[in-house]
Structure formats: structure tokens, C-alpha cells
Amino acid sequence: MTYEEFAAARLLSLLRYATMLTGDSHLAGDLVQDVMVKVQVRWRRVAAATVPELYVRRMVTNAYLDWRRTGWWRLNVLWARPEDAASGHGSADHADQSADRDQLWTLLRSLPHRQRAALVLRYYEDLSDADVAEVLDCAVGTVRSLISRGLAALRSSMVADLQHEAMEARKW
Amino acid sequence: MVDVEGELRRTFQRHEHLVPDPAALRPAIAAAASRRRVHRRVLGASGLAVLVLVALAIPTGIRAWSGHTASLLPLASTNPAPLKGRPLNYLIAGLDDFGLAGGSTTDSADTVMVAHVPADRSRLYLITIPRDTWVDDGSGKQLKLNRTYAAGGFAELARAVGGMTGLAFDGAATIGLSGLSRLTDAIGGVDFCVDYPATSSHTGQRFDAGCRHFTGAQATDYLRERIDISDVPTTDPANGFGAIIRDRHQVDYLRAVLTKLTADSTLTDATKLARLLGMSGTGLVVDTHGVPPLEVATEVRPAMRDVVGIGAPFGEIVNHDGFSGFASPPEAAQLFAAVQTDQGPIVEGQQLYVRYGCINCHGPNGLGGVPNPQSEDKSIPSLSGADFFKEFDTDAKIAAVIESGSVIGHAPIVSMPHWGGILRPGQVAALVAYIKTLRSS
Fold it and tell me: Is residue B278 within 8 Å of residue B63, measured between CB atoms?
């Protein structure tokens, strides 16, 4: 398989995965672009892997998990975002719909990256615990705990958000 | 108990529309990879060459990572025709990305506006749509306009606004409130006027009415604020709706930013423009639908002499699921249609007529009749009758009387303010355009 064949066949799937990880199309594009540049430059090594796609998927995952540790210019893009900027600002002006069906999408952002990655691999990519463990390079038990902690955090945030929004909704 | 697992699966699937187009990414990867190969090869070479290359590579890296031009609009909502010589429409959303107090975030498009430039490029209209307007999400469910973004991303917002206005867009932009401060400081702060006194509920900072300089932090603080009912005169139709008054403040801010960018030649200098658009952490994302930003700036720049704010009308208050919002009235579509057909000055004039209180004396539709017992006519004359148009038979005469105001008869008397000192010339012209439409009524 050549790099071109690989890109033609797998790029969309990698972009889907990265979009669910980052929650943002631009960041997903950036993430995949960065990884694919590396893949292209060292294609021989990637092609030698038993399952090249799994190998690249791990590269994407690691790049996502490592993002916090890399250069300051990336920090600006990925991390100079709401949570940091808002600290100390108290309550925000928030909109007003308790039945917000995509509350979960935004709540996902507040999760630690490893928990989010585990949830994406399980509930979007539909991988088994063993495969998730393979991609995250950890034990199966760790995967189970990442998933259950992630779900628990989402569940409690959903309840808290509903209460908060009900209060905020009286203001316009 | 909430079915989080099922909901999570559905949430992921619903956001597949955010996945970028692989075909668009491949050239970028190829270009970056060939750059990387060159670096790798030379890294083995002499120390000096390495230093030079690292120095070159750092800015390239920054630009590649923080270039916030992206595809926001779904293809169905775009207008692919060349920009020259036709009216242009851009969809702009201000996102509240500060997040909820609990640390989670729910981006909410709390400012939604359409920037319209008529074919003659004479003015730039910023038409704000109240965020609390109910829109149909396509499946019959009612969603507030500001929630469409969280529900389906920018595509969903564009679909909703497109449905309400009947417009196709030439491009779009989003600005995150949290990055506004940085953007403002990058251009050295801005100067604009506070219409009603306000106290920030976030920092306690007091903003007195009047014109002043805003640093980035001050601008963000002020622009987040919905103004208390008690500070807004009851004659203002937006009294009680802080979010609508806030929309006006965002327009005041944008006018100041655009004026500044015009003055410091950012809009004519490709390098300066690219630097501003590519600045990281501003939360600014621009989609020019493939047209180079400088080309858009060149087309739109003449219009920036006169940046006009118009508020789209809001309908009755309607409740859904226990939340209050505005019905989307048919007048909204009419207003957009009028602006598209070069009747923008009339629309602006009509709004100024109400907002600046002309209506209080001259009556709805200029019918007049308000008592003024000490004047010769005993009441305020009509602006719509034949007598009026016989006396004021040119635009210049109407403009002159608006600008000078009038005191007729003896005190106590209702007199007309000297509007020339209050309104911009473009606003006087808009009032003239509106008054001339009263003739038939």
C-alpha cells in the first residue's frame, strides 16, 4: 500500500475520529494534518505496522493527548479557550433552553482528554474494551474505569446544567 | 435516569457534519510534508543553516496552526457568484464561550447579525436578530436562535437565519467573546459611545453614558452586559430586553473596530490583514467561501464609511417548554427584503424615528396632532400631508429642519431638538428617506 492509497481510503475516517475527539472541525483538521505529515514523511515505518490504520489512529490519539504538552502556539489555539479565559468571571450570560439536545456535546469538552478519547472510541468507533485499551496503550481495567468515570461526570453535569439553566432562563 | 450512553452515541452522530472535507485537507498535508522533508534534510547540515531554518520555521508553524479561516457555512447557504457589482451578505455570530459557572461550556450564539453591503457599496448594514427569537429546528421543534449553534453548529445557525431572511450568504464569521479582549488590544483598543449607563455584573465596573476609550478587557466587560430595565428610558422599544440593547452595543463596537481598521490600512494591506485574522486566541473564525480575505476587504471597505445598525423586529412573546422567547414576525422577512432592494435608508430612518423619539411628537407614521397649545397651529403638524411636502419639497430642506430643530411660538412650548448635533449625517439622510415615504399614507 502506498501513502496515497492509505490517505484516499482512511483520511475521512481519521477526520471523523479527530472531530469527535476535539469537538471542533478546525482543530480536527489541524490534528489530522499534523499526524498525516508525519505519516507521509515516515511512510515506510507506518506501512510496516501490522495494521497501519491502527498505528495511525494511535498517532492521532497520542497527538491529541499530548497537545497540552506541546508548543506554546498550539496551546494558544487549543487552550486559550473559554475555560481559561473565563476563570474568575463568575456566571455567564447563558441561554435558555433546558431541553437542549446538544448539551452533551458541550459537556464533553469539560472532560479530561483520556476520558473523552475512551468515550469516543467506545460510543462512536464502537471498539471493544480490548481494542480501546490497544489504542490508548493501557490496561483493559483502566479503559473500564475511564469510561465509567466519564459517563458519571457527564450524568452529573447534565443534571447541574439543567438546574442552572432553569435559573438563568428567567433573565433576558 | 438519563440514558447517557444512548444520548452520547446520538450526539456523536449528530455532529458528523462537523467533520472536515478530506479533499480539502490533502493539499495542505502534501505542502506541509514537503516543507518538513526539506527541514529534515537540512537539519543534518551545518549549524548556521539549522539556526536560520528554525527561525524561518517558527513563524511558518504559527501561521499554519492559527490560521482561522475555515469553512463555516453549509454549501446550500452560500452564494457562489463573483462579489463585484452585486449586494453582499455575511452572517456573523458572536459566541458566548465563557461557559457556565460550573465549568462546563455551552457555546451560545448570543449575537446574530447579517452584514449587508448594497451593490453601490455606499453603506454597511449590520442587521441584528434577537437571540431570543424562536426558530423551527427542521423537525418541528422550537429552538431559540442562540441555541441553534450549540445544537447543530454554525450550519444549523445559518440554516435558521437563511430560513428567516431568505438570504444566501457570501461568507461568515464567528467571534468568541472570550477572545474579543485580545483582538481589541491588538488594534490598540477602540473608541465608541455608551448609550445608557451600565454597571458590569461581572466586574462591577461602571460605564457612564458618553463616549470613551475601551481597552480589550473593558470592551469585553461592557459588551457582555445586558442593560438593566431601570437604566433604559421607557420610550425605547427595547426597554426590558437587555439582550436587544446589547446587540446595539455590539454594532457600536464593530463600527469602531471597522473604522479603526480602515484608518490604519489593515484592510488594504494583505500582510496586516493576514496577521490579524491569523492571530491566535482571538476566537475569530472567518469563512470567505474561498475568496481571499483581502479581496473581500477591498469590496467591502468603501461601505465602511457609514456603518448602520438595524435591529430586526421581534414578535409577540411566546412560551415553549416553559421558556419565553419572541415569535419570528413576518415583518422580519419584509425588513430583510427591503434592505436587499436598496431601501435600507428607509428602514434605518423608520427605526431612528422611533428610537430617537420623533414618534412621540410627530406621531406614528408622521400623522402629527400632538397638542402644542402655545404654538400658532395649536398642535404639531403632520409630516405626511400635502402641506408638508409643498413646503419641504427637497431633501435638503427636510434635512435642514431636522438638523436645526425648531422653536415656534412662545414658551411653554414643545420644541424640536437640534438633531444636527446628535445624529450622524447618514442618519439624517435616512430620516429624510423615511419621511418621504410618509407622503402616501
Answer: yes
Contact A18, A64 (CB under 8 A): yes
CB-based contact, B8 to chain A, within 8 Å: yes
How confident is the model over B66-91, as pLDDT tens digits?
A: 334 567 777 667 777 788 889 999 99
Burial group, residue B105, by CB count within 10 angstroms (0-12, 13-18, 19+): buried
In this complex, do B224 and A93 lie within 8 Å of one another by their Cβ atoms?
yes
Chain A contact for B130 (CB, 8 A cutoff): no
Q: Break chain B into its structural domains and give their ranges.
A: 45-185+220-336, 347-436
C-alpha grid cell for residue B44?
543534518
Are residues B97 and A82 in contact, defined by beta-carbon separation less than 8 angstroms? yes
- Residue A62 CA to residue A84 CA, distance in Å, equals 23
Name residues 373-412 of chain B within 8 A of A (Cβ).
none
Superfamily classification of domain B347-436: Cytochrome c-like domain (1.10.760.10)
Work out the minimum CA distance from A40 to partner chain B, whole angstroms: 7
Burial of A162 (0-12, 13-18, 19+ CB in 10 A): middle
B177 with B220: CB under 8 angstroms? Answer: yes
Determine the CATH number of domain B45-185+220-336: 3.40.630.190
B324–chain A nearest CA distance, Å: 8
User: Amino acid identity, residue B393?
Assistant: D
Tens of pLDDT, residues B153-175: 888 899 999 988 988 899 898 88
Residue A121, pLDDT score? 94
What is the distance in angstroms between the Cα of B388 and the nearest Cα belonging to chain A?
Answer: 42
How far is C-alpha B193 from the chain's CA centre? 16
Q: Which residue has the cell 436587499?
A: B340
Task: Render the burial of A123-154: b for 16+ CB within 10 Å, e for the rest.
Answer: bbbebebebbbbbbeeeeebbeebbeebbebb
The answer to whether the beta carbons of residues A144 and A114 sit under 8 Å apart is no
Query: Which chain B residue shows the shortest CA-CA distance from A79?
Result: B281
Mean of the per-residue pLDDT values of chain B: 82
Verdict on whether the full-model pTM lies above 0.90: no
Residues of B in contact with A119 (CB under 8 A): 8
Q: Do B105 and A83 touch (CB under 8 A)?
A: yes
Q: Within 10 A of B275 (CB to CB), how many other CB atoms are there?
A: 13
**For residue B71, which residues of chain A lie inside 8 Å, CB to CB?**
25
Give yes or no on whether B45-185+220-336 and B347-436 have one common fold: no
Which ipTM was obtained for this model?
A: 0.79
Question: Are A110 and B33 a contacting pair at CB < 8 A?
Answer: no
pLDDT tens-digit readout, B360-376? 888 888 888 788 777 77
Percent of chain B at pLDDT > 70 equals 85
Report the gap between the CA of B172 and the closest CA in chain A (Å). Answer: 15
Average pLDDT over residues B261-280: 84
Kindly report whether the peptide bond that precedes residue A82 is cis, defined as omega within 30 degrees of 0. no
Give the three-state DSSP class for B335: helix
Cα–Cα distances in angstroms (integers) from residue B44 to residues A129, B58, B126, in the given order: 43, 18, 55
Report the residue of chain A nearest B64, measured CA to CA: A30
